[in-house]
Amino acid sequence: MRAHADSARLQVHACMVLCAHILVSGALCEVNLVRARSAGALEAAVAALRRHTDEMVQMSVCMLLQILTYSSEESRTIAASAGAIEAVVEAMRVHPKSGQMQLHACQALYAITIDNAENISRARNEGAMELVEAALMAHSGDQALKDQATALVLQIQHSSL
Known about the structure:
two-stranded antiparallel ribbon; globular
């Protein structure tokens, strides 16, 4: 991803390959997750998210961020330090009409903010709540988005951390 940072197409493919290697037959492969994290996948993904406004790149990166951070506090910390929260929120701003982009962004933010008060605070401060509410209004017929956005709102609003 770093060697071909300018290629949007390669970024999409790299994210999909990493997702496939981390989720093997639908199950998390911890060894591959650790290898990806150690190789700098989180930082490379955030760099791609910042560099490319292309919707497919941004959706792919959000999917990868969700997979990398959902079950790993260490990955959540690294992602936040790399600027993932801010970059995902910005992706939501750039693609308000794309229900799929909003869904993947909500999934990524949910994963990054699990059990992490600092990340929840950063998401709030970046305006994630307002963007999620806007996504819900703009895509009111999208049940998957509604479910994920509601889970994210509850996690952020009712954090007892």
